[in-house]
Amino acid sequence: MVRRCHVCTERGNPQTSAPLSARVLDRSGALFLRIIPCVVTDDFVGHNKMTENIKKYAPVQQCIYCGATGVELTDEHIIPFALGGDVVLPKSSCKNCAKITGEIERQCLRKILGPLRIKLDYPTRRPKRRPEKLPINIQKESGISSHEVPAKKRPHVTCLFAFNYPGILRDVDPEILELEPVPAMWFNTVKSDQARAVAHSIDPSYKHIESEGWFNPVLFGKMLGKIGHAFAVAELGLGLQGFRALIPDALIGKAPWHNGYLVGGEPDQIVDSKKRLEVRFGRKKLFSGREFGVVRIRLFGHLGAPVYYVVVGEVIKKPGRSLLGRIFRGFK
Questions:
Q1: Does any domain span residue 150?
Q2: What is the b/e burial string over 276-312, where b = at least 16 CB atoms within 10 angstroms of the residue's CB?
Q3: Average pLDDT over residues 102-117
Q4: How far is the CA of 173 from the CAs of 180, 183, 261, in angstroms?
Q5: Which range has the top average pLDDT, 19-28, 123-132, 201-210?
Q6: Interatomic CA distance for residues 293 and 262, integer angstroms
Q7: Domain count, the chain
Q8: Residue 171 resides in a domain
Q9: pLDDT value for 256
Q10: Distance of CA 1 to the CA centre of its chain
């Protein structure tokens, strides 16, 4: 389900530099979610050269999603290049799977994260296609009008949901996860005085200015799943060292994708990080005895963005003999 975040500022004291207020609306127009605001300042701008030193793992020589061999294989950025990802898994995706995962990333990177990437000057493979202007809405006494402003000056809004812990780790039926409420939303914008300056340059008689963000939890969850699986393969090898891979079939459409089941997050607010990107692997053992491999991901950690968890695999338990079987084995 697509969610939209409307962020606006009223006319007021031009010296005010608080973040813009936010309204998060579902399709019915209902207001929901706890808001975690963050403001972009000039301190965060200028990351366009972050990918100069590309790190590469050993070539996989097999598609990490469908298992295809003997076909042309492409390299995978574990974290997308457009987010500053500097780690590559060579020869690890066939063309068919690369098309699927590439479309997921394109939707997320352009629609969900595009305005923030432009503001932060994140890298792009197609700089000539990066929009120079983006729309905003200005409301006056006579009504609402849409205007285009320079992309880097536009009062942008980027919203990311904070997810609940993955359902598989809470033993929650995947069919009912969509009924769970979203615990919070993080949104990123600019200072209100900057927004007012843009609006005033368009029309000094404006009443308020409004920008809109876009978020699709399914697409974003799949992008996280792709990052988590690729990182697990890079760290553990193609066989995931005794883990049964859980992500690939659902990611490429061979199995149902239940949002919130294998991909979840930290529902509580986390302090800002000193790092832009964080990815690490860990293990989680449940009281039931099941054990899972989990990749922790944080994008835009330096801006206080949410933490996400991708359950990439389950430990394959070796079949053991029952007590009765061990007793009878002694008579052989």
A1: yes
A2: bbbbebeeeeeeeeebbbbbbbbbbbbbbbbbbbbbb
A3: 93
A4: 11, 18, 8
A5: 123-132
A6: 11
A7: 1
A8: yes
A9: 94
A10: 15
- Please list, in sequence order, all residues whose beta carbon lies within 8 angstroms of the beta carbon of residue 253, skipping any fewer than 6 positions away: 100
The pLDDT assigned to 93 comes to 97
142 Cβ contact partners less than 8 Å away, ≥ 6 residues apart = none
**Does 157 fall in a domain?**
yes
Please give the radius of gyration of the chain, using alpha carbons only, rounded to the nearest integer: 23
Tokens coding 200: 């005033």
Q: Report the length, in residues, of the chain.
A: 332
Does residue 323 carry a pLDDT above 80?
Answer: no
SS3 category, 25: strand
* pLDDT value of position 66: 96
Q: Spell out the residues 6+ positions from residue 16 whose beta carbon is closer than 8 angstroms to its own.
A: 192, 193
Domain that holds residue 131: 3-45+114-215
Section 49-76 average pLDDT: 83
Q: Is residue 292 part of a domain?
A: no
3-state SS class at 284? strand
* Whole-angstrom distance, CA of residue 100 vs CA of residue 221: 14
Give residue-wise pLDDT tens across range 250-299.
999 999 999 899 999 998 877 888 888 999 999 999 999 999 999 999 99
**Residue with the two structure tokens 């295809």:** 68
